[in-house]
Amino acid sequence: MLIRTETAQDIEAIEQLILAAFDNHPHHAPGQGTTEHRIVNRLRSEQALALSLVAEEDGQIVGHVGFSPVQINGQASSWLCMAPVSVAPERQSLGIGSKLIRQALQTLQQRNSNNPNRVSGVVVLGEPTYYGRFGFHVNHGFTVPGVPPAYFQALAFVADAPMQGEIGFHPAFE
């Protein structure tokens, strides 16, 4: 499996992958359908994807992860949101999502070593047991209105990173 940065030629395959991965997702209201593909497309069109990686096997895109900036208390921040993480339904539970997440976090940390505009960390909304494996935790001071605190997690890259305040997502998530 090859994990790499997305290219323009991947966009349609990424959209189809996200549609399939989130079809009938248990966190969607019945009959609502998926919106995650539109979020990624809007982030991309507004140049708000700080990092977008794909997992490729035999020339097929089987996984994707995207990162976008977040605000803290209405102000720009050095934190990113990881969302969505998508894996082709027939390839789920085989470690593709884990490999994508690990590679993405490593890529962001490597960027920090040569960049004065460092990424302080990453936040994610999701299953604590799953994301805890990558170092995410709920012991922070961030809040997101309407989100249960047990499902909103953070992973700091910088020791003195600010870790409190209300998180605001890019308008693409609305």
What does this structure look like?
- The chain has one domain: Aminopeptidase (3-Layer(aba) Sandwich).
- Strand 2 and strand 3 form a beta hairpin.
- It has helices at residues 11-22, 36-45, 96-113, 128-132; strands spanning 2-5, 51-57, 60-72, 75-87, 121-125, 141-143, 152-156, 164-168.
- Helices cover 26% and strands 32% of the residues.
- It starts with a strand and ends in a 6-residue tail after the last strand.
- It is an alpha+beta fold and 174 residues long.
- Strands 1, 2, 3, 4, 5, 6, 7 and 8 form an 8-stranded mixed beta sheet that branches.
Mean pLDDT: 92
Shape: globular
Query: Which structural category fits the helices and strands?
Result: alpha+beta
| C-alpha Rg (nearest Å) | 15 Å
What level of helicity do the residues show?
25-40%
Strand content: 25-35%
What is the architecture at the second tier of CATH?
3-Layer(aba) Sandwich
Poorly predicted regions are: none
- Mind telling me the CATH superfamily name? Gcn5-related N-acetyltransferase (GNAT)
Which fold name is given in CATH as the topology?
Aminopeptidase
For the record, give the distance between the C-alpha atoms at the N and C termini, rounded to a whole number: 33 Å
Strand segment count: 8
- SS field, number of helical segments: 4
- Specify the CATH class: Alpha Beta
Secondary-structure element order, as H and E? EHHEEEHEHEEE
Largest sheet: 8 strands, mixed
Total count of domains: 1
Which descriptors apply to this entry?
Aminopeptidase, single chain, globular, alpha+beta, 174 residues, 26% helix
